[in-house]
């Protein structure tokens, strides 16, 4: 007697109830796996990208916006700050390192970030091909950028103004790819990195032209008056003034001691026109806000799981009651009670396994579709694959509920009176 074949025939004999059981169970699995994947992806991005960044300093505005824009590169910046302020902060004895970043352009939706060599160390990024930028107008590509745009060493392109892909405000300057980074699974994989000078030169046409004209006047003045001391002082003043006009978007700061977290941000916020935001604090607070929604959907998923388990129980119990004569007849032909129970159990297992496969597929498909229609494309896709632990836990919960439904459904089999059932059917 092939028990599997009998179970499959039972499933085929009632397609509507089988379909209903699989769909409701698959829906609950999709919600459970989807929420777990979103939560784990959010936590992964928080801890993976913060590294040793203790404080982010930028223009006044929303602290969370500053963190999202400067650390995760998911939002618009709060504004720019003078570069001279960054130099002052770097001299603070509590500060271990200051990494300035400046951005405002993109290429096909990927952000172009101007910074210094210390930026790579934050994300432990290493060069896979080529080298890091040494001169202005040279860029290094994150691994995702290189793969998605199919760019190679030596390729050139022009950036667009703003953080959204457009073909209206395209700069004339050509940027040259001199390096490609190894994959890090961090935000730098989705960035185009260059020197600060590149960002300044692309946006700072006016001062450059003024500087050229002023240098020409200075040379004429030097030739006419031959006053070397005056020229030296004038050039020094002009260089200082020109440097004072430079701006950056934010500063990524790490401290020498955790004690600095108690005083430094407060001093910046109260005694300057700048803003200091704590990445871990802001992202933890964001997670607390979003976790309410996560928990709500989780409870909805548990409710649907309970309903689906109830549906499976009703389906199996109905089969046991309606086919009591067939099951009793199998007993008379030598089938044991355990074999009869296995027929019902296999039917429940087949439904549960089919629903789990469908639920896992729907989870992956649904997240892709949601991100696509939410205009949250691969350029900012932070979804991480689910770990084996999360999948195992969900599978264990689902199969435990199905097993409980099977136990309840097979109870009439244990109490089955074969002679009574056969005698009633014969009448």
TrEMBL record:
Residues 18-198 form the MacB-like periplasmic core domain. It holds the Pfam family MacB_PCD. Residues 300-418 form the ABC3 transporter permease C-terminal domain. Its main location: membrane. It is found in: Cell membrane. The chain crosses the membrane at residues 16-35, 299-317, 349-371, 391-414. Residues 203-225 are annotated as: Disordered. It is a multi-pass membrane protein. Keywords: Cell membrane, Membrane, Transmembrane, Transmembrane helix. The keyword Cell membrane applies. It comes from the Bacteria. This is ABC transporter permease.
């Amino acid at each position: 007697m092939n028990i599997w074949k009998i179970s499959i025939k039972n499933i085929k004999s009632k397609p509507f109830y089988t379909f209903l059981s699989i769909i409701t169970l698959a829906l609950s699995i999709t919600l459970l796996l989807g929420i777990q994947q979103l939560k784990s992806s959010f936590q992964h991005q928080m801890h993976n990208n913060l590294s040793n960044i203790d404080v982010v300093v930028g223009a006044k505005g929303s602290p969370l916006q500053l963190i999202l824009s400067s650390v995760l590169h998911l939002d618009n910046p709060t504004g720019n700050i003078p570069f001279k302020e960054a130099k002052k902060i770097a001299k603070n004895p509590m500060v271990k390192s200051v990494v300035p970043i400046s951005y405002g352009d993109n290429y096909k939706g990927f952000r172009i970030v101007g910074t210094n060599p210390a930026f790579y160390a934050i994300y432990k990024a290493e060069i896979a091909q080529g080298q890091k930028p040494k001169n202005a107008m040279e860029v290094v590509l994150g691994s995702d950028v290189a793969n998605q745009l199919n760019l190679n060493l030596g390729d050139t392109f022009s950036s667009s103004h703003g953080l959204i892909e457009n073909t209206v405000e395209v700069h004339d300057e050509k940027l040259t790819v001199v390096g490609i980074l190894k994959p890090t699974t961090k935000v730098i994989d989705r960035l185009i990195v260059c020197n600060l000078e590149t960002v300044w030169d692309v946006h700072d046409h006016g001062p450059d032209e003024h500087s050229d004209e002023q240098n020409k006047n200075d040379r004429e003045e030097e030739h006419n008056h031959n006053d070397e001391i005056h020229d030296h002082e004038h050039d020094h003043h002009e260089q200082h003034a020109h440097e004072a006009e430079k701006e950056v978007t934010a500063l990524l700061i790490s401290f020498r001691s955790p004690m600095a977290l108690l005083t430094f941000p407060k001093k910046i916020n109260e005694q300057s026109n700048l803003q200091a935001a704590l990445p871990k604090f802001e992202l933890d607070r964001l997670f607390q806000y979003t976790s309410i929604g996560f928990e709500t959907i989780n409870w909805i998923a548990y409710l649907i799981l309970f309903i689906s388990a109830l549906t499976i129980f009703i389906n199996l119990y109905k089969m046991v009651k309606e086919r009591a004569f067939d099951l009793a007849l199998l007993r008379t032909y030598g089938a044991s009670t355990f074999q009869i129970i296995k027929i019902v159990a296999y039917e429940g297992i087949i439904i549960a396994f089919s629903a789990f496969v469908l639920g896992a597929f729907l989870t992956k498909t649904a997240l892709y579709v949601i991100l696509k229609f939410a205009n949250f494309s691969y350029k900012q896709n932070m979804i991480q694959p689910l770990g084996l632990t999360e999948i195992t836990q969900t599978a264990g919960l689902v199969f435990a509920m199905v097993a409980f439904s099977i136990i309840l459904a097979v109870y009439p089999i244990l109490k089955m009176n074969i002679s009574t059932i056969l005698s009633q059917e014969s009448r």
